[in-house]
Amino acid sequence: MAYAITQTCCKDASCVSVCPVNCIRPTPEERDFGSTEMLHVDPQTCIDCGACADACPVDAVLPVDSLGAAQREYADINAAYFEHAEEESEARSAETDGHGPIFHAWGEPAFERVLPPDFGPLRVAIVGTGPAGMYAAEDLLLHTRAEVTLVDRLPAAGGLVRYGVAPDHPATKKAGDTFARFHTHPRVRMHLGLEVGRDVTAEELAAHHDAVIYAVGAAADRRLGIPGEDRTGSLAATTVVAWYNAHPEVAPDAVDLSAERVVVVGNGNVALDVARILVSDPEALAGTGIARHALAELRRSKVREVVVLGRRDPDHAAYTRSELRALKHLPEVDLVVDDHDPRIGAVIDAAGPKDKAAVLRGVTREAVDWSVAPDAAGGRRRIVFRFLSAPMEMCGDEHIRAVRVTGGNGELQIPAGMALRAIGYRGVPPAGLPFDEAAGTVRHEHGRVTGRAGTYVVGWIKRGPSGGIGVNRACAAETVGTLLADAVAGVLPAPTGRPKAFHRLARRRR
Ligand SMILES: Cc1cc2nc3c(=O)[nH]c(=O)nc-3n(C[C@H](O)[C@H](O)[C@H](O)COP(=O)(O)OP(=O)(O)OC[C@H]3O[C@@H](n4cnc5c(N)ncnc54)[C@H](O)[C@@H]3O)c2cc1C
Ligand code: SF4
Ligand code: SF4
């Protein structure tokens, strides 16, 4: 028996450093780490100690023999990762005479930060309590004597872990508990419901701290720029995500599920999240943290079919394999690939085992007749993937009635009463910081905001809106490393006030 890493892996690499036999790959130092969607356990070397499972913030590591039906394939997925690790095989330990477990060599120990023994406690403000802000706080609290002021504009901490991650991913939501350990740390003061730029200015925050880290995420959605985008029934997927997560700024009646067919434009993980929630059995969602108003609307829902529309072919879709695989296990839900273009089937048929398109092998392919209303036979719902197709117009009068799309032999209209654009999030320039409009990110060097001594960025506002929760960990380590180097070099501007005065100001303004 061995352990295996499964669907919810968010790549924070907590497991790597606790594995006594170094058998979790790729490690953050390896080239593959940037492109891999998840980490893998080498079953030949794993000694079953369970340390990785204890360290994992999202319960992604499980003993192979405890994997349920929906996760069983992860045993093979983990093992397959090591099949061609030729250098590893060469390094088989001499004692095992080449027949025992693969010996995974340890890298050279690296000490990237060295702080002088008299390094005093820094006062650091962090704006944003999502994963990026909390990884930065954790790094500062665990490795220095810093005092940290946490600020968030929302009444609950957690950023997108609280208000973005889908409610039927409770293991992923658990990452919020890991971060919450630091909310009550003796060297932390937290101000919720306090917006920098509205309730306090960036200058006030900076004046009371040695450094400020902006971890404000990417709150805005991208627009399609096509006619009819503002018709009733055409919404941003961000609105639906916020709605089912009980975001305080989205009204309980913001989403009306009276349409039988919904078109979701985009095929990243957010598109799949929304599609999955719309076709799931509401009773299966009842035990999750889903907003009560969303559950009530889902129980009334008329939605029979969700069409996921993507410009690219099935091998280049933006979603991850694990999110697509999970859809195949949804009870009472059929998956269909719209076979409107011969290239789609060709890509799926030609896909190698590691290609994304291979996950769609075995999924029904049919040339969908859009003139027929979604089939309600047997109470089953379905998700239709339409690849190589782009939206041209949201058609209708006041309300959307159809989406005009390209693909196959020209254009056609897909009748639909609702269309959701899920084509990405976008950063909003915080506190007048230098902003790259094209990328939607703050300009920086290794996390230090360009031309702003003492000001730093981390997370989606630094890198752009992609990457799971765990990716923010390495991002935070880089930013905190830069901040500490600046502190050691004595280039942080001297604050004019103390954090205590800021806390009083924050209480007054809130
Ligand atoms: C819908 C959705 C589902 C996702 N699901 C998963 C998943 O299942 N697994 C996974 O690994 N990753 C998932 N992700 C990705 C993950 O959520 C991100 O990697 C991560 O949240 C980015 O962290 P962040 O801290 O940069 O931003 P955020 O999480 O957005 O945090 C930013 C915080 O800053 C606060 N803020 C903004 N402006 C101000 C201001 N002016 N003053 C004070 N506070 C401010 C916000 O209120 C927010 O709390 C998902 C993302 C989305 C959008
Ligand atoms: S169970 Fe132990 S040996 Fe196996 S992968 Fe996890 S930490 Fe490593
Ligand atoms: S989420 Fe982190 S700790 Fe859990 S398996 Fe993935 S990389 Fe390892």
Automatic annotation (TrEMBL):
UniProt keyword annotation of Ribosomal protein present: no
Cofactor(s) the record lists: FAD
Species per Swiss-Prot/TrEMBL record: Streptomyces bathyalis
Catalytic activity: 2 reduced [2Fe-2S]-[ferredoxin] + NADP(+) + H(+) = 2 oxidized [2Fe-2S]-[ferredoxin] + NADPH
Name used for this protein in its record: ferredoxin--NADP(+) reductase
Record has Nucleotide-binding as a keyword: no
EC number: 1.18.1.2
Gene Ontology MF terms: ferredoxin-NADP+ reductase activity; iron-sulfur cluster binding; metal ion binding
Keywords associated with the record: FAD, Flavoprotein, Iron, Iron-sulfur, Metal-binding, NADP, Oxidoreductase
